[in-house]
Amino acid sequence: MKRRDALKIGAVGLGSYALASSGAHGASHRKPSFVLVHGAWHGAWAWSEMTVRLAKAGHAAFAVDLPGAGTRARFPASFLKRPLDKKAFATEVSPTRSLTQDERNAYVADVVKSAATIGNGKVVLVGHSWGGNTISHVTEAVPELVYAVVYLVAFMLPPGISPSGMLQDKSYASGQVNPLLMADPGKVGALRLDPRSLDPAYVTATKRAFYADLSDAQFVAVANLLHCDEPAQTAGVKSPITAARFGKVSRHFIRCEDDRAMPAAAQDRMVELVDGAGVGGKTVVHKMSGSHSPFFAQPDALLEVFRKIAT
User: Fold this and answer.
1) Closest CA to 177 of 21, 80, 41
2) Out of 18-27, 95-104, 189-198, 300-309, which region has the weakest mean confidence (pLDDT)?
3) CA distance 239 to 134
4) 62 and 111 in contact (C-beta within 8 Å)?
C-alpha cells in the first residue's frame, strides 16, 4: 500500500492517527499496527502521547472516538449552562441514550480491518477502562486480525458477565467512580459526570479517581476534554468471549497498583475470572505503579510495555 493510501484510510472517521515517519515507514509494514480504544468519558485525545511514541517506534497507531465520545459526544442542554442546575442535570434525558454497544463494536472492527492493511496484517488492540468492553467483542468478532488484545486497567470480563455485574463484585468496594455519578442511569440513559464542575470537593474527587498522579494544572487541561454522558446501555451487555475465537488471541492485562477507579483487587479478580472461565490461554499480566491513566502520567513506561507485547 502506498503511503498516501495509508494516510487516506487513517484520516477517515478516526479521532487520531499517527504513522511512522517516512524514514521508518518500511519498518511499520513489518510490525503490527495499534488500535487504541479509550475509556468512559474520554476520547481519542487520551492517546495523544502514545500515538506519537508508537509512530516513532515504527508502529502505525490509530486512536478512535467511539460513537458518543470525544468529537462525537453529545451534551444535555443542562450541562452547558453555568452555574449548573443540579436538579435539571440529574433528570434531563441524555442525547446518547440510544447508543448501543453493537454500534461501538462495529465501528472499532472496521478500524481494525483498515489498520491491519497498514501494518503486518495484524493489530495490537488496546482498551482502557470501559474500552475493555468493546475490545472483547471485537476480538471475538475478528480474532484472525488481532495479534494481541491488551486490557489497560480495563474491563476484561468472563463470558456472560456484564460491566454492571462486575461493578457489583466486592472487589470493587473501594472504587471511587460511582460516587461521582450525578444522575440515575436508568432515568437519564447515561452514566453522567460533571467534568467541568466548579465544586472544589467534586474536582478533587474526580482527579483522585482518574488522574491521581497528574499535577493540578495537567488535570485542568484533561478535564476540559472529558464529556459528561456515557451511554448506559453498554453497562448491561454481557461479555461474548469464547475459547474458539477470543481464546486463540494472546491476551494481556496492564495492572496499575495505585488505581482508584478500578481497584487493584478488581483488576486481579477479572484476571482470575477470565483465566478460570475455560476460554483458553492465560492472561499475561504487566505490572505498573501509578493510577488509572498511565497514558498521560507515564507514557514512556507504557510505551515499553506496548513494545514488549508487540514483539
Assistant:
1) 41
2) 18-27
3) 9
4) yes
Tell me which residue has cell 514512556: 300
Comparing CA positions, the residue from 50, 35, 94, 34 lying closest to residue 69 is 94
Instruction: Return the amino acid letter for 86.
Output: K
pLDDT in tens, 250-300: 999 999 999 999 999 999 999 999 999 999 999 999 999 999 999 999 999
- What does the alpha-carbon distance between residue 232 and residue 192 come to, in Å, rounded to a whole number? 9
28 pLDDT tier (thresholds 50, 70, 90): low
Euclidean distance between CA atoms 153 and 213, whole angstroms: 15
Q: The sheet that has 33-37: what strands, in order across it?
A: 16-18, 61-64, 33-37, 123-128, 146-152, 250-256, 284-288
Q: Decide: pTM greater than 0.90.
A: yes
Q: List the beta bridge partners of residue 140.
A: none
Q: What is the 3-state secondary structure (H, E, C) of the chain?
A: CCHHHHHHHHHCCCCEEECCCHHHHHHHCCCCEEEEECCCCCCHHHHHHHHHHHHHCCCCEEEECCCCCHHHCCCCHHHHCCCCCHHHHHHCCCCCCCCCHHHHHHHHHHHHHHHHHHCCCCEEEEEECCHHHHHHHHHHHCHHHEEEEEEECCCCCCCCCCHHHHHCCHHHCCCCCHHHCCCCHHHHCEEECCCCCCCHHHHHHHHHHHCCCCCHHHHHHHHCCCCCEEEHHHHHCCCCCCCCCHHHCEEEEEEECCCCCCCHHHHHHHHHHHHCCCCCCCCEEEEECCCCCHHHHCHHHHHHHHHHHHC
Contact 102, 145 (CB under 8 A): no
- Confidence band for 19, pLDDT divided at 50, 70 and 90: low
